[in-house]
Every structure is written in structure tokens, then in C-alpha cells.
């Protein structure tokens, strides 16, 4: 449920030297940071029992808590460290070779490679993508893009997975939304899951669904709504097969563009209201955020932001 929103925001464009299909792969400068940022380190202190749940919802707002993110002077994120309780930090390196037109992501934990992706952009509007896990090549695909930077065709030429086989189909509907349908089967050929994703011309997710096939079928649906400033203002999700009302999260923002409130509800029932209060630095970026759940203090996030001079 949460991974889709995070992934969808990677499409924010920062390096103007990239072509359309290259631009959308660059890391997002989360939270619309102001100024020429060198690095951001953020830590959350838990003060209430609901902080973990709140952090999960907070992924909708693309705040990467408990992390160190470093950018070059053009705004390209080249280094990330994510701190996880009970685990070694996950460290990521990202680079782009303009001569070879190759974008590379590599993630390490405890000095060992966890996973990585390499994309080589070709002159015909396509790219060759290789995915690695534990240092081994597990998938190689050829990607084709449209003028909006959306992948409109993926042809897998190599896939190493003994458990599941996935097939993706792409088409553009009457609303100019890219529709990606992925079907996954197990090694017996039985259908496990069907996923549908709809991406608009601004390269934002507007709808996704996951239908699982088992003794008790599950059909999760997710819908996303944005305002004229391209901010996520509402998010709905629920199990269609259950017949229960969908849950909805509505977001509110201040004049600085930071989220100050969200409400989680289903139908007429309000489950919780989360409010945020901020302190800002001289650049207008927040450096402290206090979190309140139903009026009770629930957590605080501190950020240390360094800038290029």
C-alpha cells in the first residue's frame, strides 16, 4: 500500500540535462527543500505509542525519517543512509555517467551488496535495465518511454526467479493515463496476483489495485487525489472484496507547503486526526516537526540541513 506513493514521487525532475526518460529516474529532493542543499539528516524521537503507525502514513508525504541524504550542487542525490531499528544501516549510492548515459543505484548493508539497478539510456528513447540482488544479475529488461517519461513497454530478456513469473502489459487509456497490468504466477503456473497501476501525464499514480488469488480472495484498491499545486490532498484505500467502506486520508498544508494535518476516516467515521507543528531555519526549511495524534504528543522529528555556500 505504502510503497506506491513513495515510488510515484521519484518522478520529480531535478537535473535539466537529462532527457525526459532519464529525468524521472533521479531521486526526489523530498519535501520541496529550499536553497542549495548539501545534506539532510533526520531523526524521529518516539513519545507516543502511535508513532510507528504514523510513520507509515507519513510515507505518503515523502519524508524519509531516520536517514542521511546527500546531494550534489545540482540537486542530484548521490548518497543515502537509512537507519533501521535492530538492523545495520542500509546505505545507497546513486550515480549518473553523462558520457555513457548510465544511471546506477546500489544499496549495501553491513558492507555487503543488498540490491542494485543499472539503466543504460539509448538514443532511440529506450533503455536497458539490469537488476541485481546479492551481487547476482536477476533480471534484464528493455524499457521504452513516452514523451512524458513514462515507461510504456517493458520487454524482459532475462529473469531468474524460481518461485514466481510476472508479465507486464502496457496501454494508454482515453484519459491519457498509462495503464500497467502485471500478472504473477507461481512455479506451478497458478495465478497469484494481478496488479493494475494508472499513471497520468504528470507521472503521478492516480489509481492502483492488487488482486490476490487464494482461498480467501483479497482485492485492494488505492486512489490518489492532487490539488492544482501538484500536492497529494487525499488518498483512499480498501479491500473491495470485503464490501467494507474504504479508508480515506485527507491532507492539509500551510502556506509554506508543509503538511500540517491529516485525517483518517471511513465513511462518516473519523478514526484519528494528526497535526504537525514546525520550526524553520533561515532558508524556510523546517528543522523540527512535532506530531500530535488526537491531541496527544506522539513524536518529534529533528532535521539538520547543510547547504552549499
- Mean pLDDT across the residues is 82
Percent helix: under 10%
Number of DSSP strands?
20
**Helix segment count?**
3
How many strands, what sense, and barrel or not for the largest sheet?
20 strands, antiparallel
Explain this structure.
Helix content is 6%, strand content 56%. Strand 2 (67-71) and strand 3 (77-82) form a beta hairpin. With 309 residues, the protein is mainly β. The chain has one domain. The chain has a 20-stranded antiparallel beta sheet.
Short description:
This protein has three helices and 20 strands.
Label this structure with key terms.
309 residues; 20-stranded antiparallel β-sheet; 20 strands; 3 helices; mainly beta
Q: How is the topology of this model organized?
A:
Layout: H1 3-8, H2 20-23, E1 37-46, H3 51-58, E2 67-71, E3 77-82, E4 90-97, E5 102-109, E6 112-121, E7 126-133, E8 136-145, E9 151-159, E10 164-172, E11 178-186, E12 191-199, E13 205-212, E14 218-226, E15 232-239, E16 247-253, E17 259-266, E18 269-280, E19 286-293, E20 296-307
Antiparallel strand pairs: 1-2, 1-20, 2-3, 3-4, 4-5, 5-6, 6-7, 7-8, 8-9, 10-11, 11-12, 12-13, 13-14, 14-15, 15-16, 16-17, 17-18, 18-19, 19-20
Amino acid at each position: 500500500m505504502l510503497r506506491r506513493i513513495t515510488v510515484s514521487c521519484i518522478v520529480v525532475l531535478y537535473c535539466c540535462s537529462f532527457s525526459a526518460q532519464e529525468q524521472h529516474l533521479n531521486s526526489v529532493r523530498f519535501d520541496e527543500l529550499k536553497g542549495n542543499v548539501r545534506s539532510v539528516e533526520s531523526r524521529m524521537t518516539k513519545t507516543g505509542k502511535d508513532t510507528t503507525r504514523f510513520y507509515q502514513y507519513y510515507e505518503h508525504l515523502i519524508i524519509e525519517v531516520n536517514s542521511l541524504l546527500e546531494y550534489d550542487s545540482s540537486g542530484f542525490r548521490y548518497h543515502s543512509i537509512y537507519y533501521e531499528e535492530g538492523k545495520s544501516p542500509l546505505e545507497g549510492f546513486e550515480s549518473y555517467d553523462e558520457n555513457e548515459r548510465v544511471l546506477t543505484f546500489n544499496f549495501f548493508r553491513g558492507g555487503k551488496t543488498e540490491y542494485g539497478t543499472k539503466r543504460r539510456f539509448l538514443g532511440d528513447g529506450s533503455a536497458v535495465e539490469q537488476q541485481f540482488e546479492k551481487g547476482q544479475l536477476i533480471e534484464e529488461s528493455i524499457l521504452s518511454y513516452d514523451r512524458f517519461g513514462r515507461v510504456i513497454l517493458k520487454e524482459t530478456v532475462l529473469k531468474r526467479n524460481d518461485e514466481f513469473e510476472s508479465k507486464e502489459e502496457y496501454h494508454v487509456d482515453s484519459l491519457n493515463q498509462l495503464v500497467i497490468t502485471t500478472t504473477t504466477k507461481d512455479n506451478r503456473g497458478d495465478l497469484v496476483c494481478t496488479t493494475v497501476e494508472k499513471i497520468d501525464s504528470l507521472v503521478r499514480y492516480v489509481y492502483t489495485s492488487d488482486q490476490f488469488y487464494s482461498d480467501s480472495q483479497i482485492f485492494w484498491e488505492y486512489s490518489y487525489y492532487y490539488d492544482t499545486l501538484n500536492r497529494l490532498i487525499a488518498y483512499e484505500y480498501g479491500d473491495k472484496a470485503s464490501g467494507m467502506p474504504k479508508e480515506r486520508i485527507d491532507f492539509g498544508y500551510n502556506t509554506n507547503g508543509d503538511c500540517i494535518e491529516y485525517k483518517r476516516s471511513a465513511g462518516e467515521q473519523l478514526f484519528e486526526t494528526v497535526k504537525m507543528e514546525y520550526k524553520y531555519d533561515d532558508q524556510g526549511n523546517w528543522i523540527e516537526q512535532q506530531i500530535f495524534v488526537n491531541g496527544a504528543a506522539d513524536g518529534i522529528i529533528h532535521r539538520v540541513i547543510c547547504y552549499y555556500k
